[in-house]
Structures are given as C-alpha cells and as structure tokens.
# Entry
Amino acid sequence: MLIRTLSALECTKVLTANRLAALACSRDAQPYVVPIYYAYAENHLYAFSMPGKKIEWMRSNPKVSLQVNERGEERDWRSVIVDGLYEELPDRTGYKEERGHAWAMLSRHFDWWEPGALKPVTPALSHHSPHVFFRIVVKELSGREATESAVT
# Structure
C-alpha cells in the first residue's frame, strides 16, 4: 500500500467531485459529527439544514472540520480534510445574493435537500423560511491517497 499526500489542486478536485461529507463541530469541549450534502465552489462548501443541534452548535462555535472520502477499487481511497468557518446565509436583506448562489449550487443535484429533510419551497413574501442555508469558508485543506503498490 502506497500512501501519499494530495496537492491542494487534488484536494479541490475531490471536493468538487463529491457531495457527501462528515461535518464535525463542537461546543463546550464536546464534539459532534453528522453527515451533510454539500456543493463546493470558490473556496466554499455550501449546505442546507433544518434548525437543530448542528446549527445551534455552529452558531456558538463557527470553527468546523469536514471529511470527504472517495473509495476506489480494491483498497484504494482518497480523503480530504477541510478546516473552516461556518457562515449562515439568512433569509433577509444583505444575504439574498449569497443565499441564491447557495440554492443554485445545491439544486444542481436532484436530491440536494437530503439529508436536511423537508425540501424547501420558495416562501411567500411575508413569511420567513425556517430552512438554514450556510457555507463553510475553507481556511485549510489537506488530503491523502492510498493505492495498492505495484508488485515487481
């Protein structure tokens, strides 16, 4: 087995090619890990959720990590770790453009709203949407790859 470090470009390609990540956040020295679907663009991972534990925790501590894994043939794999900052994209003036961008990035995939539950609909103008769109600003990323070594 040969294990090597991925370049920044290779890490970015893994993030772009995948949609499922394990999101880690923490509060009061307690870690919490949950799967999320995301879309990667321009040094941001865009995601969606209903209000709940992960949103509460990220609001109180915006430092997060994500892990994205790719399985290859046999025992081959790639893994990328992202350290970043949570930024909520609320449904109000000042965030409309970024929230729209998040929606556009995520909705390229037919099941983009899973596992966030309850597919969002465009709310009436007088109502507030309970759905939480957010992005993770990538501060650092690293990755590794394992491949079966050639037998000589």
About this structure: Residues 123-127 have pLDDT under 50 and may be disordered. The CA atoms of residues 27 and 68 lie 22 Å apart.
